[in-house]
Amino acid sequence: MKQVVVDPDSGVAPWRQVRDQLVHLVRTGELPVGSPLPSIRQLARDLGLSAGTVARVYRDLEVAGLLRTARRRGTVVAAAPDPSMSSAATDAGTALAASAARFAAEARALGVDPEAAVRAVRAAWQAG
């Protein structure tokens, strides 16, 4: 696997740099489906980042369907991004899926049922 690097002077958040590079590696086939990725701790150590930062990237890419994590096998590439999708569409879809996952987790923690959560999103959308 081509090495992922983080440039602290780039002006782009480190998590975003890692995420974008992993998406690129999967999209170009340098990381084919089934390829193992380093553990969160290992990649964080290699990049000089916190484990939470790398965990965020892995979580976002899992929600987007690009990665899959299994306890015994670790994290592997689950699917290649649809080549017909533009990078912007992939980024927007990934960001939306990650936001939805966070919202769903917060709603569950509050004890809200799914229908009430959807109503809250609709109301927020209309309030705009």
From TrEMBL:
Protein's UniProt keywords contain Glycoprotein: no
SUPFAM superfamilies noted in UniProt: Winged helix' DNA-binding domain
Keywords tagged on the record: DNA-binding, Transcription, Transcription regulation
Keyword Transcription regulation attributed: yes
CDD domains for this protein: WHTH_GntR
PROSITE patterns linked to this entry: HTH_GNTR
InterPro entries noted in UniProt: Tscrpt_reg_HTH_GntR, WH-like_DNA-bd_sf, WH_DNA-bd_sf
UniProt name for this protein: DNA-binding transcriptional regulator YhcF (GntR family)
Domain of life: Bacteria
Originating organism: Saccharothrix australiensis
GO molecular function: DNA binding; DNA-binding transcription factor activity
Chain ranges of the HTH gntR-type domain: 12-80
